[in-house]
Amino acid sequence: MDGSVRKHIAVSAVNIRKGGTLTVLRDCLAYLSTRKDLKVTALVHSRDLCDFPGIEYIEIPWSAKGWGRRLWCEYVTMGRLSRKMGDIDLWLSLHDTTPNVRARRRAVYCHTSFPFMKIKARDFRMDFKIPLFAMLTRFAYRINVHENDYLIVQQDWFRKGLSKMLGFPEERIIVARPDFKAPAIENGTPDLPTFLYPATPDCHKNFETLCEASSILEQRIGKGKFRTVITIDGRENRYSRWIFKKWNGIGSIDFHGFMGKDELYSRYGKASCLVFPSRVETWGLPVSEFMPSGKPIAIADLPYAHETVAGAGSVAFFDADDAAALADLMQQVVEGNLAGFSPVPRNTVAEPSAKNWKDLLNLLEI
User: Fold this and answer.
1) Which of 63, 123, 129 is nearest to 97 (CA)?
2) Domain residues for 120?
3) pTM for this structure?
4) Closest CA to 350 of 220, 206, 174
5) Do 166 and 199 belong to one domain?
6) How many other CB atoms are there within 10 angstroms of residue 59's CB atom?
7) What is the pLDDT of residues 98-148, one digit of tens each?
8) Residue 109 near residue 37, CB atoms below 8 Å
9) Is 343 part of a structural domain of the chain?
């Protein structure tokens, strides 16, 4: 196809460097690199993070050095770049904010669910950046949001929440659930009933509820009857140090620390139950990774969780702050009586929705 008639799409992702958002960026550019009918310009932190053939890159590493630079990049630098780039058919921002750019159509991929987290006073003591980020994101989401033709989210509850918070029509918020290959899990039999919670050492991950539940359960049935494996070691930050100081005397808790993918997948196979008490998530990838094992999942009774576990065969929900209720569920697993666990039916996502990047770009008229 003659290059002069190719549609031009700009993808901005200058603050994406790790985690699930980097996976989204890589998947997006991997698909776009196959589209020979498109001219694609990617504005990124570093090309090395997401290098695919057929894509023009603009690297902006300085944007990640603080919120002031990030906002300047979004609302000043990108505007200047969009004017230099000429006609742009779609500007797709992959990280929450709506840049001040010129394009025929605009869309924003909204990852950050922190604005919907119930903030606790302790969060400010453990890591003030997380509650501050939650409050700042509520503000940042609003800037220019109505200039977009579409917003993109991963779950329907998030669509409804953003629509209400921003006054943005639900029918213009696309649900694009993450598309990933589940790992191969070889189930084994642990020497003790084992509970696993893989998560980063951030205060919203709510390790305290699981640790306190483990303490309660140990008091009920005695030491050496079960094991709780968590992926912090008590040295990472203030929050993990507090968790370790308060609960390291509980012999049933294994402060294992970070796990690489291979070890984590092996641990899925050896675990008796996945516990997921996180107070807020965009999706909750470990839950989806664990589901093919068919083993029990105990998860916080929050909107994200109900969508993530849809289709799972053995699930129990608990109040994220109720350690005693979680201890009850853990005791059921230890005793082999899963009365509190049940299947969760699959759900149908309302339109507009997209199963993959091809569907999503079609909805965005590209």
Assistant:
1) 63
2) 3-177+351-363
3) 0.89
4) 174
5) no
6) 15
7) 999 999 999 999 998 988 888 888 888 888 888 888 888 888 899 999 999
8) no
9) no
Residue 189 lies in a domain: no
Residues 112 and 137 in one domain: yes
Residue 323: inside a domain: yes
CA distance 258 to 310: 27
In a domain, 322, yes or no: yes
Q: How confident is the model at residue 301 (pLDDT cuts 50, 70, 90)?
A: very high
Domain count, the chain: 2
pLDDT in tens, 170-202: 999 999 998 777 788 888 888 899 999 999 999
Pair (138, 45) in one structural domain: yes
